[in-house]
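Consider a typical record:
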Amino acid sequence: LDHLTENYIEDFQSRLSGKNYLLLFNKSDEKNPTQTYDCVLSAKTGEGVQDLKKMIVESIQKNTGDSKKTFIIRERHLVLFNAALSQLNSCLEKISNERDVDIAAEDLRLVRSSFDEFLGIKYPDELLGDIFNDFCIGK
């Protein structure tokens, strides 16, 4: 959540009741939170990002015994992760067979490209269209 969506905190908490989740407040560089959060951060300045990483690792380590956990993820993120995993497996297969090292390097570049897109380092035209279609009002 951020200062523009903070008023939805109770709705999120009720929907996630009984599930494991971390409640995050982003854009702390713009405004301080008015509620209590598990982690306060600014993606822009990097403040709190290390704390978030630590919390995620601790949460995963604590919950590794139960493989049926709920994660909220956009379909686009899942597609990108699956593409990266497939490309990484392809790269590892080529390297382990000591063949097609140049093609393996291209697979690795595609893995990086998927993660760049996921992290918002690059935006394909389709993503911009999806954002406009999903979030813009008054077209």
User: Anything to note?
Assistant: Residues 6-62 form one domain. The CA atoms of residues 3 and 31 lie 7 Å apart. The chain has a mean pLDDT of 77.
